Amino acid sequence: MTDNALREFRMPDVGEGLQDAEIIRWLVVPGDSVTDGQVVCEVETAKAAVELPIPYDGVVHELCFPEGATVDVGAPIITVTAGATAAVTVPGPEARTPVLVGYGAAPASAVRRHRRREGSSPAAPVAVALPLAKPPVRKLAKELGVDLAAVVPTGPRGDVTRADVRSVAEADPATTPTPPVETAPAAPAMPAVPAVPAVPAVPAAQETRVPVTGVRRATARAMVASAFTAPHVTEFVTVDVTRTMKLVRRLKRHPDMAGLRVGPLLLAARAFLVAVRRNPEINASWDEERQEIVLKHRINLGVAAATPRGLLVPTVADADRRTLPELAVALEELTTTAREGRTPPAALRGGTVTLTNIGVFGIDTGTPILNPGESAILALGAIGERPWVHRGKVVPRQVTTLALSFDHRLVDGALGSRVLADTAALLNDPGLLLTRA
Asked: Which among 164, 186, 335, 399 is placed 20 to 30 Å from 303, CA to CA?
């Protein structure tokens, strides 16, 4: 707190042990009224995107960092004058609802979100309809006489830029302030000035540089550390999954699976979990400091999810203890929240083994990199019809390739082979996948 009236809101630790976060988008500007619990900005950490609510009432005095800045935990990010009030306007029907983190591109005009606390009057103003623009851009618009509401934003997050304001000002001379005109005697005619040669057009940019921040930066560091720390071994097996695909079709019609997403990923996850339970030594991690193998007594399944912010691996805790319908619900929830940017940091910790589905991209197989701190990761390849020897005849069958990468410090070839072969056998004959064991 800088004085009796000015309060500082500092960057909180939104996940255990995180050191910094990037400011994605401000939802307020200096002069806005804020209330206790109102979301004032969105930040991205190394694990997820998070909305930050402010813990007191007042009027925004200063935004300490611009959008895109990476801020250390504990640093002041916004100051608020406590007890002050500001005039607000209630948006008309044309105001657009703001887009939450991860739900897509921000709208051209963002609505400030004010969360009403318990006991507050429902008639109190709840929003301020203002175009999204940084303070310097608002100042420029004011100097040029440009109404921000009439500007079409082209900023990366739906915000109005300086170029947008200048474009409107140049297109409408009436918006540009006119200096006072002084009368003076008419000047003698001047000789014509030769036309200035046209400036050659600047060639289009040959490259675009994209800063790596937040989730993508954390993923890059983790993958490099994993690849050059754990000695990876990858084994492959091609398996006939015709009966698994038939089971998928039957399960989609089963009353217990009504409304749930049933596909080969669900049954591959189930088969992998059964194989890990049968071979518990693979459910482990390596303690580099003590040079020990740490056996895990819970099987927490991570599922790799491609999101607009980068690769996330949310986790299903105690996945092997869940029934098939329970596992289906958990998988759908974690992949949906990950793609929408709503995964809490706690859901990104504690995984013991991981499953990645590269088949959705039409890829047959690959060599997946271990999630840091884990001993094994299974990749499910594309499933397609191929000629296959079945009961002594070459017939078309549904076939896929599984790839298992493991840490060779704690998983030898025999153990890794058993887990991969067991998973393949269960997908070839999936009857046991319907049981809890």
From this structure: 399
Residue 268 belongs to a domain with what CATH number?
3.30.559.10
Please say whether the beta carbons of 126 and 367 come within 8 A. no
SS3 392: coil
Looking at the 3D structure of the chain, how many domains does it have?
2
- Does 10 fall in a domain? yes
Query: What's this model's pTM, rounded to 2 decimal places?
Result: 0.59
HEC string of 193-256? CCCCCCCCCCCCCCCCCCCCCHHHHHHHHHHHHHHHHCCEEEEEEEEECHHHHHHHHHHHCCHH
- Which structural domain, as residue segments, surrounds residue 101? 6-130
Distance set, CA 172 to CA 19, 94, 146, 167 (Å): 47, 24, 9, 9
254 part of the active site:
no
CB crowding 46-79: b at 16 or more within 10 Å, else e: bbbbbbbbbeebbbbbebbbebeebbebeebbbb
pLDDT 10s digits, 389-434: 999 999 999 999 999 999 999 999 999 999 999 999 999 999 877 7
- Using the structure block, give the residue that is written with the tokens 């209630």: 90
Instruction: Say how far residue 144 (Cα) sits from the centre of its chain.
Output: 38
